[in-house]
Amino acid sequence: MPRRPNILLFLMDGVQASALDPGSACITPNFDRLRESGLLFRRAYTATPVCSPARASLLTGTLPHNHGVLEVEHGRDADQCNLRTNLPHWPQRLQANGYTNAYFGKWHVERTNCLENFGWTINRCKASEHHAFLGQGKDGGADLDIDPKLCRYVEGPPGYNRVLHYGVTDVSPDQRYPSFTVNQAQEFIASNTNSESPWTACVSFSEPNESLVVSRSTFEQYDVSKTPLPVNLNDDLADRPNIYQRQRAISKDVTADEWRMARTCYYGRITELDVQFGRLYRQLEESGQLRDTVIIVTADHGRYVGAHGFDAHNFGAFEEIYRIPLIMAGPEIASGLETHGLVNFHDLCPTILELTGSEPITIPDSKSFTALLTSPEDARQEFNTAYGEYHGTRFCLSQRILWRDNWKFVFNGFDFDELYDLANDPHEMTNL
C-alpha cells in the first residue's frame, strides 16, 4: 500500500445493496468492473437509514446518538438536530497528514455548509454553484419535461403536494446534476495528477433517493416487463409492529405494473450513476493514478422500492434500507473477491485513517476493517456483528438493530420486537 494513497469516495444516496450484487437486474458495467478488480462487501450496514445522521456517522465514526444528528438536518429546529462540533472528522486527520480534500455534490450533514470547518480544503457543494440543478425532477418534475405516458404522480389528500413518483424524460444524463458534479471532480483530479501531495475526492449524490426520473436513452436499455418484483412485495406484515401497516397503506394503490416501472426507473438512475463513475475510473486509469488510489463505492442507506409494500426508507428495519452497497479497490486490496464479514458504514472512518497512515480516531462505536481488505477469508471471523439505530423521521420512534452472524434482532421502543433468521428467511417474512 502506498504510504498515502489517494482516496476516491463515490457516495450515492438510497441504493439497495442488491442492486450492485452479482446477477442483479440493474445494468452497472463500471461498478461490475470495479467489483472484479476489488472487494465486494455482502454484509455492509448503514448506521441509520436516514441521510444526514448516516453521513455524519461516516465522517465521525460515531453512531447518531453520539454525534447528535438524529434526523435529516432540515426536519427539526437547529438545537434538535445539531452535529456536535467537538468530534473530530476523518478529513481533518487526512488534512493534517498532507492531503488536499475536495467535496463535490450533496452535503446534507449539517446546516452551515462550511465544509472547510470539517477538513475539506475545497468545498464544491455550495448552492450558488449548482442552483440550476437543485430539485431537478422533484415534486411536479416540470423542469425535466416528463413523458405523460411514462410517469406516475402521488396525489395526496387536500393540503399535500402532488409528487412525482417516477417518470421518463428526454433530457439527457449529461445535462443533469450527477454529470455536473462529476465534471467538477474531474477538474480537481486533473489539476492534482502530478501533485506531490495525496488527494481525497468525495463525489456525493442525491440520486436515486428522490423522484425516480430517468433519461429515455437509459430507460430504453431495460425491458420493463422483465424487471423483477420484490419477493416480499405482498408481505402482509401481520406479525410486525402495527406502524408498519400504516406505512404500507401509503402505497396500497400502487399496482404490480407500476412497481415494475418504478423499479425500472430506479435501476435506470443507478445505471446513470454507473456511467458517471466510469468517467472517473477511466480518468484515473488514463492518468496513471489508478495504482495509487483507493476507490470506495457505497451509499448512505438503501430504499424499499416496493419491498414489503413500502417505498422510501423511513420506516421498518428491513435489509433493503439497512444493507448498503460497498465495493473497495486499490493497492493491496483483495482483487475479485467478496466477503460476508459484517461491517458498518461508519467503520469507513477508522478504515480510511488506517489506510492513509493518518492519526486514528479511537472510539468504541467503530473499528477499522483493513484486515478484511487484505485477507477477507482469514479475517472473516473477526467481523460477525453490526449495529444500527433509528430515532424517527418527523415521528419519534426508537429502534435498535443488532446483527450477529445470520441473526438479526430489532428492538422496537414503540411496539413488540422482531427477530429474523436471515439464512433461512432472507426476505424477512417471518418474525420469530
Question: What do you see in this structure?
Answer:
Helix 6 (177-191) runs parallel beside helix 9. The chain has 432 residues and is an alpha/beta fold. The strands form three sheets. It has an eight-stranded mixed sheet, with helices on both faces. It has a four-stranded antiparallel sheet with strand order 12-13-14-15, with no helix packed on it. The protein has a three-stranded mixed sheet with strand order 5-6-8. It is globular. It is built from 13 helices and 15 strands.
Give a nutshell description of this structure.
The protein is an alpha/beta fold and 432 residues long. The protein has 13 helices and 15 strands.
**Strand order, biggest sheet?**
4-3-7-1-9-10-2-11
Q: Count the E strands.
A: 15
Radius of gyration: 20 Å
Cα distance spanning the termini: 45 Å
Question: Secondary structure elements and their pairing?
Answer:
Blueprint: E1 6-13, H1 29-37, E2 39-45, H2 51-60, H3 64-67, H4 90-96, E3 100-105, E4 122-124, H5 127-130, E5 146-155, E6 162-169, H6 177-191, E7 199-208, E8 212-215, H7 216-219, H8 242-249, H9 256-287, E9 293-299, H10 319-322, E10 326-329, E11 337-344, H11 348-355, H12 370-374, H13 376-379, E12 385-392, E13 396-404, E14 407-412, E15 418-421
Parallel strand pairs: 1-7, 1-9, 2-11, 3-4, 3-7, 6-8
Antiparallel strand pairs: 2-10, 5-6, 9-10, 12-13, 13-14, 14-15
Helix pairs in contact: 6-9
